[in-house]
Amino acid sequence: MRSQDRxxxxxxxxxxxVYLVGELVGRGMEPKIWSGKQKGRIKGxxxxxxxxxxxxxxxxxxxxxxxxVIIHAGAMSGAEDVRRDPxxxxxxxxxxxxxxxxxxxxxxxxxxxTSTDLVFDGTKxxxxxxxxPGPLLEYGRTKAEGERYVRRxxxxxxxxxxxxxxxxxxxxxxxxxxxxxxxxxxxxxxxFTDEWRTPLDYQTAAEVLCDLAMDRQxxxxxxxxxxxxxxxxxxxxxxxxxxxxxxxxxxxxxxxxSQSLPEPRPRDVSxxxxxxxEILPERRLRTVEEVVGGM
Length: 295
Ligand SMILES: NC(=O)c1ccc[n+]([C@@H]2O[C@H](COP(=O)([O-])OP(=O)(O)OC[C@H]3O[C@@H](n4cnc5c(N)ncnc54)[C@H](OP(=O)(O)O)[C@@H]3O)[C@@H](O)[C@H]2O)c1
Prior knowledge:
Blueprint: E1 7-10, H1 15-26, E2 32-35, E3 40-42, E4 45-49, H2 55-65, E5 69-72, H3 79-84, H4 86-107, E6 110-116, H5 138-150, E7 156-161, E8 164-165, H6 175-184, E9 189-192, E10 196-197, E11 200-201, H7 202-214, E12 221-225, E13 231-232, H8 233-243, E14 251-254, H9 274-279, H10 288-293
Parallel strand pairs: 1-2, 1-5, 2-4, 5-6, 6-7, 7-12, 8-11, 9-14
Antiparallel strand pairs: 3-4, 10-13
Helix pairs in contact: 1-7, 2-4, 4-5
The structure holds NADP nicotinamide-adenine-dinucleotide phosphate.
NADP nicotinamide-adenine-dinucleotide phosphate (NAP) binds near residues 16, 37, 52, 75 and 76.
């Protein structure tokens, strides 16, 4: 980003968003920050509630702010929420993204859209940017639809992100912190051994997304933003428990394939990060042990 850039972060009150704001502020930026409903301040900046489903409001606020760089992390991000209310999921994740993408194209803004590994159908490993999405979950479908609008933006980048983990800075628990809390309380936790991701910590994700937002020339289209290692949630939590000195025996394996789940789930959405490592060779991805070492 250049000093004259006006930056906007959507979804700034979310698990990833708070890290993004911290990273930008740490780099000397003063982004405008949006939530869906939450009010308050993050790193001294005022959160503005701008519902992405309200096209008129989104357009009028964008025209007032005139951002030159947008990191679009606002979303209905819970797969179960989108399954239960696919209409709302589409309004936020598809229509909201379309509004931001169209405005960005009209005004030449750099747009970085946080998509997901869950756009893939899970039938192979280490998906690359040229592989075709084929979402199984409704959530993944809405995010894949959002991608189509971002790909039409001259300065647009779809950043498909793997499962995120790490400490929460929002004051609200996440899946990861809930499991650790359970372990701390001596409760066994069952985690799937037959679903694979390339988990990435929030801090590294925020650093990478800010680097990519800054990089106007090199990177448009699609990029995969994942961690170094392919693993199951079971392995992620086992290694985290070990790193934190928690009782490993409480981390139990379970099979997603033996459960009756409301939607079919992709088995393997691990992402290849070859392109990322070419574009940002100096950016080192952290191991699970390094991430939990700081908790
Ligand atoms: N977490 C992961 O493992 C993961 C993996 C891959 C991709 N992603 C993507 O990364 C992004 C951030 O995820 P996250 O885990 O940080 O999600 P999160 O914690 O659920 O945060 C979602 C953010 O979006 C905002 N939002 C929700 N509904 C909105 C609406 N109708 N209008 C405007 N804003 C709305 C929320 O605002 P309020 O606080 O006001 O509700 C919040 O700031 C999402 O695009 C998600 O799809 C996440």
